[in-house]
Amino acid sequence: MSTVTLSRHTSPDFFSRVVEGVAAFFEAVGEGRRIAQRYEALSRLSDAALATRGLTRQDIARVAVNGR
C-alpha cells in the first residue's frame, strides 16, 4: 500500500500580496475618513463662509473628495 501526502507550499509572493492588500484596505479606510471629516467641516460652514472660500454648497462634495 502506498501513501500519498499532499503538501501545500505557499510562496512568499502570496503573503506579500496579502499584506499589501490589507495595507491598501486600511489606507483606503483612512482616506475615506479624511474625506468624511473634510465634508463635515465644510458642511458646517455658513453660506457666507463658504463664499469667502469661493465655494457653494454644491461644491462641498467635490472639494471634500478632491481637496482644493
TrEMBL record:
Organism: Ancylobacter moscoviensis
Annotated protein name in UniProt: DUF1127 domain-containing protein
